[in-house]
Amino acid sequence: MTLSEQTKTIQTFIISHPNVTSISDSDELHKLYTDLIDCLVDHNHLYYIESSSIISDKEYDDLFAYLKKIEELHPEIISSNSPTQSLVGQVSEGFKQAKHTIKLASLENTYNAEDLTDRDERIKKILEKSFEVISASSVGAEIQTENLKYIIEPKFDGISVELIYENGRLEKAITRWDWRVWEDITANVKTIKNIPQKLKQPMDISVRWEIMMPKSVWKDINKEREENGEIPFANTRNAASGSIKLLDSKEVAKRWLVCYVYDTLCHSDLKELESESNWSVIANEYEAIHLESLWLPTYPRKKEVNSIQEVVDICLDQQIKKQLESEDYDFDGLVIKVKDYQYRNILGSTDHHPRWAVAYKFPAQLASTKILSVDFQVWRTWIITPVANLEPIELSGVTIKRVSLHNFDFIQAKDLHIGDYVWIQRSGEVIPYIVWVITERRQDIQPIIMPKACPSCEGKVNNVDMHYYCSNPQCPAKLKEQILHFVSKNCMDIQWIWDSIVDILVDQKIVQNIADIYRIPEQSTQILLRKFPGIGDKKVSEIVKEIEESKQQPLRRLINGLGIPHVGKKMAQDIVQAMVSQQPVCLEDILHILTDRDFLITVYGIGGKTLDALVDYFSDTQNQEMLMHLRDIGMKFRVDTNGYDLYTEKKESFSITGTFPVSRDLIVSTLEKEGYIFHDNPTKSTQLMLIGEKAGSKREKAQELWITIYEGREILTKQFPILATIKINDISDKPKITQTSLF
Ligand code: IVH
Fold first, then answer.
1. Which residue, 512, 530, 550, sits at the end of a domain?
2. What is the pLDDT of residues 590-614, one digit of tens each?
């Protein structure tokens, strides 16, 4: 039985036995218990080690809760293998095991905002009891539960990590895949840009962070993975986890991970530092440490509330949920924390969870619908992708009609058929995907059969690994996709050519291969194009202008644009980078290098399939002729490696206000050269705000817009080292990372 079948069997059983007490047969109970353990251990493995869970958090929590219920009622059967005792796992290859300073707890989850009121009552009872003890011993102690305040923060959906600073310097980063497996990921964490390597004060402190991948980066990486025939990451969390476990830190740096602090685990008392007492003073005692003033970045959205009713209102407030969804990170709920550290200490923790904090998880955005039919789409890499047409359903405000089925392996793994009902999930802005087929609702189903002929040109379809390819080099659907890719922003950047123009060009047989794009400036083509509705003189002359300019594009963009299987943006860049040492002076040299297996194998990251694809492409005489034709019409094939890696392309946008010792223009141009994008006025899409002396209204605007603010020389030059080279001497030394409150 596969894990998904086993899980389904258990879930079905649980639905029919919501109370453990209704299971009277002890053999049946025992079998269920061991099956549940097996199943959860496997899900843990998928989640923590393989970074690819197949059930939702809610489903996992329900299974886990049921296991706990069995153990509560039948403590005699508790097995040491049970995930409630300690989770089973292993350290991934290539990483050292590491030990956390203290045991890392997790949050208890609730999916029901009303539960929070009960919890509030329980908290107050514990506190009141302890106040009685306190007031009995110290006359006049005036702590009262009416003063109970909560802090509400977003719940990050990423990877939890402990960072240990010793003497103010980052010494160690340790993941928590589960309660037994901890990996030392220090080298990789040091590549994350917003993590300070050094704190404001030389103290010993251990803090807990969440590593996340911004949604925008995740989308780009997935696009590239799909282009290279790799399976995309299902969500940002899997992508962050897969990235932080890469063995090459340089590659991790290119994943644009971001990290925020949310908890202090332990710290040395500052006064004790001189007496060299380090970790000895720390215990599992919480104390209000002002994280921001140590330069530790916390997420700016927080809200302090005075009553549990306010907590419940916020949890149910759809506006807040929507606002969080529109941000560049995935949040799967809210975390509600008792504000007062003194109260936190009184409340303490259970074996696994703190009593002073709880997670309110947003209801899963799941909806069920029916697969009506399956279409097959031809991609430029010749891959034929199955796409399901669904009975339209609405999921968090968006109507979903189609969903990608990726490849045939996916169809088999999920056991999908036409006519099946499926659960569709969508979190935030994320592309919807099928999580589960509902076998219980199965009635009239038909198998999904991959086509033998290409749906566009009827060419023969070949099957290699899990992909199906159209074998016809002249396939028009493929050609259209290839052209759209060739003219796209990351390739030749001819943005005036869009889908409808490509349709005309291909259908009219003006363009039969990529090089034919350069026939558009011919008079006859221009006249023909102008005959189509919506294509006027202006559009045609813009296209012609961009086509001319594109001849100057560097070789790496051209190679990316050729649509060679497994060769995406990054691979093209790495190839050209390696090529520099060979000093090619003409196209013949370039072709020689690109068909030289001994050279290509030295390029970092090239595997067998990519090598074959490159050599096949560049030794093909038709392709060679096409490239020579491009040369004859003026293509430059510039072997230039500057400014095209993810680093410089992905830099954030910034705005600036206040006075600086050097001109603002100089700061702007310096940062722009580094790849940052300048916004004259801060807007919703501005990411950073640099603030000098006497800042005006732009500062307030930035605060309103939740833009991360950098202020003070040390902060500025630390965040933007390039600025140190233009000597901003006189800016106030006081670092202030503005903590805006409230949602
Ligand atoms: S406070 C449990 N605050 O949620 C110790 N945790 O099990 C106190 N998480 O992996 C945690 N966002 O890493 C806290 N704003 C936030 C959080 C947060 C996400 C994580 C935590 C853990 C998981 C819950």
1. 550
2. 999 999 999 998 887 787 788 999 9
**pTM flag (> 0.70):** no
Report the run of H or E that residue 333 belongs to, with start and end: strand 331-338
Q: Are 252 and 191 in contact (CB under 8 A)?
A: yes
**What's 46's DSSP letter?**
I
More confident residue, 635 or 278: 635
Which residue's alpha carbon is nearest to atom 17 within ligand 1? 155
Residue 295 shares a structural domain with residue 381: no
Single residue among 330, 361, 392 that ends a domain in this structure: 361
Same domain as 200, residue 324 = yes
User: Token pair for residue 194?
Assistant: 């917003």
Domain range for residue 82? 3-89
Residues with CB under 6 A from ligand 1: 105-107, 153, 155-156, 160, 210, 262-263, 335, 354, 357, 359
Distance 108 CA to ligand 1 centre (A): 9
Residue pLDDT, tens place only, 429-472: 467 888 888 888 888 999 999 899 998 899 899 887 677 888 88
Same domain, 153 and 248: yes
Residue-wise pLDDT for 195-231, tens only, equals 888 888 888 888 899 999 998 889 888 888 877 767 7
Ligand 1 center from residue 452 Cα (angstroms) = 50
CB half-sphere exposure, 73, CA atoms < 13 A: 15
Q: Which residue's alpha carbon is at the smallest distance from atom 10 of ligand 1?
A: 160
Which strands sit side by side in the sheet containing 366-378, from one edge to the other?
398-404, 384-395, 366-378, 421-425, 433-437
Query: Which of the listed residues 155, 163, 209, 330 should we mutate to test ligand 1's pocket, taking the one with most ligand atoms within 8 A of CB?
Result: 155
Instruction: Report yes or no: 415 and 435 within 8 Å, Cβ to Cβ.
Output: no
Report the SS3 class of residue 70. Answer: helix
pLDDT band at 694 (very low <50, low <70, confident <90, very high): confident
Report how far residue 324's alpha carbon sits from residue 428's, in angstroms, rounded to the nearest whole number. Answer: 8
Residue 509 known to be catalytic: no
CA distance 546 to 493: 8
Q: How many domains does the chain have?
A: 6
What separation in Å is there between the alpha carbon of 206 and the centre of ligand 1? 15
Catalytic-labelled residue, pool 8, 155, 254, 302: 155
Angle between helices 569-579 and 587-594 (to 10 degrees): 110
Task: Specify the DSSP class assigned to residue 196.
Answer: -
Cα-to-centroid distance, 262 and ligand 1 (Å)? 7
Looking at the structure, tell me whether residues 568 and 680 fall in a common domain: no
Helix (H/G/I), strand (E/B), else coil: 668: helix
Q: 561 and 545, same structural domain?
A: no
Amino acid at 635: M
Does one domain contain both 524 and 568?
A: no
Torsions phi, psi for 353 (to 5 deg): -125, 145
pLDDT for 276 equals 36
